[in-house]
Design a protein that fits this description.
The protein is mainly alpha-helical. The chain is built from eight helices and two strands. The chain has one domain. The chain is globular and about 55 Å long.
């Protein structure tokens, strides 16, 4: 199995644009939407750097997990941004809701249904792992670092839950086509963590 990871110039541009757009969308969403940010622009200024770090890290490692897993199964894999969906993510966050589908890693080559399922599953599981890494920092740290860690928990759990929705091109649909048991086993915890993140850890 090949493990040679390369990035084309277009792929790097797409990753960069998606990173910035997602960081902005999450900052707007957690800042209360466009109207709230309009009256309190300092909220966006404060959230944007943290969102770029946490959403950016979550997004990049999610897509890298897809890419690495696909390449390990002998695929040719490359990320492509969906600029229409990136616009929708920012516009939706301005309106107070979040829809994060920045693009996808497209891969080609001979792959079984199981391999495709594992490629899809790698992204959400990476976000769960990142959220769990941020969680003890959120609980232990105070001030700005604690707030950044808390944002990292919420964003990564939201990304995991959203991507496991069994609809259209989302990862959950691919996993479900491979194995309904795997979908339930991994999807239900992802959905629970996403709901937890949306409630702002209010039942901790």
């Amino acid at each position: 199995m090949s493990t040679n990871i390369r990035f084309s110039g277009r792929e790097l541009i797409d990753l960069g644009v998606a990173w910035v757009a997602l960081g902005l969308a999450f900052a707007l969403f957690f800042g209360g939407g466009g109207q709230a940010v309009m009256y309190r622009p300092s909220v966006l200024v404060g959230l944007l750097p943290a969102s770029l770090v946490t959403a950016g890290l979550g997004f990049l490692l999610h897509e890298l997990a897809h890419k690495v897993t696909a390449i390990r199964f002998g695929q040719i894999a490359e990320f492509r941004a969906d600029y229409g969906m990136l616009f929708l993510a920012v516009a939706g966050a301005l309106a107070g809701f979040l829809f994060a589908a920045p693009g996808a890693v497209y891969h080609r080559g001979r792959a079984t249904l199981r391999e495709n399922g594992l490629i899809a599953l790698a992204g959400p599981l990476t976000n769960v792992a990142l959220g769990l890494l941020f969680l003890p920092l959120d609980l232990a740290l105070g001030g700005t670092l604690g707030e950044v860690a808390g944002l990292g928990v919420r964003i990564n759990f939201l990304l995991a839950g959203f991507n496991m929705i069994p609809f259209g091109p989302l990862d959950g649909n691919t996993v479900k086509k491979w194995s309904f048991t795997a979908f339930l086993g991994f999807g239900l915890p992802c959905f629970a963590l996403a709901i937890w993140a949306l409630l702002g850890f209010s039942f901790l």
